[in-house]
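Hey,
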Amino acid sequence: MLWYLGLPEDFLKNPEVVSDGCFRIIEIEGEEQWLCAEADSNEQVLSVLQRNAIKQGSSGPVAFPLFPSKGLRLKKKIEGWLDDFQRLPYISPYEDFSSLDPNSDVSEKRVAGVLHELLSIFVDNSAERRRLLCLRKHLGLPQKFHKVFERHPHVFYLLLKSKTCFVVLKEAYNGLSSSAIERHPMLEVRKKYVELMNKSEAILRSRRSRKPLVEIEDESYC
């Protein structure tokens, strides 16, 4: 997960240098090291959805921002279920969920909330679907939690690229200022790196063909 979180490979040697007090490393049974969200003793750790609800002054249950894809139409029965789903209690990824019925809709909303929070803190707000499977046990997710991506197409987008399936958080790419998801500073660094690599490839092709170099336009990085 270091790549997705924008952390250096030697992060575990000096976590306090990079974390800036936002999280810390804790030891778990079996000598496993986990990332723990850090907060003041009087401050509650809030998810992106909770911060967004506070920002908008919402007093009702925390709901997911929905972004329907063009051409995607839900049946009226599913639309009714989605409306009820949005009104269900929201269990934060940072709260205890041991008393939840794993087969309930509230539990499904908690799973969707965990995945939403996870993708919101990734650098480009997306990840390979198969790489998320290894987090199932650590995040308390059900066996087939990946079905949430298909059941909630207004929240998540499945992108097939180079024979690999990626999960993209739609909220991060909606372009609305009302979203609580901030653009990761590492994203700009990676964009410049991609532009440099593209330019280097063009220079090599020019030298091999002995043709003058044609400046290529910068491609946006997603």
